[in-house]
Amino acid sequence: MDEDLDYEDYISDKDETEAQETRAKHINGATLIKKRGRSCPLCKGKFTHPRRHTLRAHLPWYLYPSTACWSCKLQFGQARFVQIHMIEVHSSDDVGCRYTDEQYEQKWVELVNGYLKQISNAFGFKEVSQACDYVNQNIRFRESCHQSTFLDEDISPILSFNRINHLEPDTAYMKPYPAVSLSSLLHWKVLSLLTLDSGYLDTSTEQRLQLYIPPVKINYVDSHFHLEKLRRRVGSSDFPQFNTDKDQIKNFLQFGISNYCFPKKWPSSSEREKIREDKRVRLTFGLHPRTVNHESPRTLQIWLEDLEGLLDSKKVVAVGECGLDITDRPSSKILKNQKDILRKQARIAKQKRLPVVIHCRGNYDTSNECLRCLTANLPADHHIHRHCFNGSYAEYIKWKIAFPEVKFGISPFLLNEIKYPQFRELVCKMELGDLLLETDAPYLPGADGSTGSPLLVKDLAEKIANLHNVSTEEVARITTDNAKKLYKIKEL
Q: What is the mean pLDDT of the chain?
């Protein structure tokens, strides 16, 4: 193997004398003994050690990491000369000088990626992988490199290169030709010829590049939707998922909380078992305030007793939605009944140590009445989800003071600025740590009027990100953490 000659150090006194006599006529470092000299791929000189010469004179210092000083940024081309340099220049405990995977692996791979990209750009290639095709199609590479191999000291960095760039482990990495992967391009002969053909001779510019960009994974939570209603509206009982087959951003609905607040539609035991097959779905059960408007006290009491049993079921995470609703202009008697049922559900939530999902529709007075019912029956540290919040900033602050752990659901109201222009200003003032994403699907449509879906959480996150001047990933992360903490969800 031609690389073996790189370790041939002995030159006779006669040969050295002949070389010294005419050194000025030749390229620095070239040998004058024709029988021992081999041509450098990049210059006209002949060298006893063309590999060592090429690494030192024509290629960036970092390309062969184990024979470089990472402090001085010098390439020596041979391990023995690195050792001599370390003794003469650096103390033995200067750990930053020699290449180690722990300290320099990532940096080295990115530097090599950058150099390969620069060569590819010089060729006009759109992808670095096109350099492999160029090597395999050019007969000069076959003639020069078909018998070449990597040295043992090169294998570890090559494996790091493949791993960090998420390339398939190269079973043929001991031979650089044919170029079966990008790691084949790291052989000094292949790089020399590529450098020559591309005309890219800049060895001083250091550019770090990630060839493999890990996809950004964004987890969303729909903290409030209605699976039963969604099933009847769209004809599917499945909790949806984003299409993740495009771009570098992978969106996932990590979990969703389906609210069952109309007792006549509460799922049976077998239906709940079916729902729980989707590991992402959690359930809440409660009595919606509008159910109070049309039912007898006896029926309501039976439902409250049934509710206590349902709350002990698997994957049930909260009581609700429950609260007050005056949009139907209920009589004072009915409103009194709503408050009574709300108080009873609050006490059940306290007993079960479960969060409460609050439905509060009306005016500022309605919000105050609802808050009074809760403060009288729940401790200040109780977890509360203020569902579909679109009140005032003063209301937001008042609820936060009363219940510091309260979270406010931001719904698709935010997507309809024409109908709800004041909501944008409110969300701008609210803290991200207080927010939850919720769609209330299928009740609230998208901005284009389409049927509401849990997938709208992505649009909500993007809108909130724009209002708060942060990334969508940041909004998704914070609101997901908020939901997990509020609903005490540890495992998905």
A: 87
